[in-house]
Amino acid sequence: VSVRARTTYQATTDHNGECRLCQLVPGKYELTFRAESLKTVRRSRLKVRQGRVTRADQTMVPPTKAVWIPK
Fold this sequence. Notes:
Strand content: 25-35%
Strand order of the largest sheet: 2-1-3-4
Oligomer: single chain
Number of strands: 4
Radius of gyration: 15 Å
Number of helices: 0
Order of helices and strands: EEEE
């Protein structure tokens, strides 16, 4: 997971697929979820508020492929 603001923060998930980014300044952030062999997902305008826990759950899926179906 990477968080984009004026600075980029990166975190690696644990064996449960969870991670924590502590002490972020309140504001809006863009999150990018990446995993090998899975589709990259970007989530923008995630609000982080002071004194509160902000969750960003994301299910990772394989990339979609175009399928050609002959007539």
